[in-house]
Hints:
The protein is α/β, with parallel strands linked by helices.
Amino acid sequence: MMVLRLFLKAPVYFFQIWRCGKSSKISFEEAYACVKKVTIAANRAGKVKIESYGVENIPKENGFVFFPNHQGLYDVLAVLESCPVPFAFVIKKEARNVILLKQVVDALGSISIDREDIRQSMQVIQQVTEEVKGGKNFLIFAEGTRSREGNRPQEFKGGSFKSAVKAKCPIVPCALIDAFKPFDEKSVKPLTVKVIYLPPMYYEEYRGMKTVEIAAEVKKRIEEAIARYTVSRDSVKEDKKR
């Protein structure tokens, strides 16, 4: 549906994003604005509505890391539309060459990671650390791979938080609800995806905690948010039935 409805504009959008990744004259903020514009158009074409909550929780100063639960390739599109501040992201190397995603990765200066290559993984951790210290924001999926259980997150891996800990930056938990549906459900019915930005964990709060403890705490907060927002939705459905 996204592709068909944007068939005539798709080549133009593709070229614009590709150009952002190739031209050194285009700033990170300009590239993000371009990618966001295309993302919004794609979501509208696919009849996907993004509802965002807690945007006021996003730190006012740049140099922090978002940690959402991972439901699939659509996750980044949901956050891109709803997030008012530019960010790059870390993805697994297997997704690096997916058409269009590859161009978005280049445009935003995002990074691919090979979790089976310890040396490369350490290089990525250090690179993200330095860029965050320099004021760039990142998004990292702490589960490592997508959950196959819908809105139920998998275990969050402690290693995913090493860059944030090294940078001593704010950690922003994000809860994604129904982000798996646009690409997983064989339907063109209108859908709503929720993005909830939770209050950040500042360094003073997690200092002294092990990364596995930070991971468990972030997962707990996300699970609580998912439960809170899905319960309210289910309650509305029950009221309508009555």
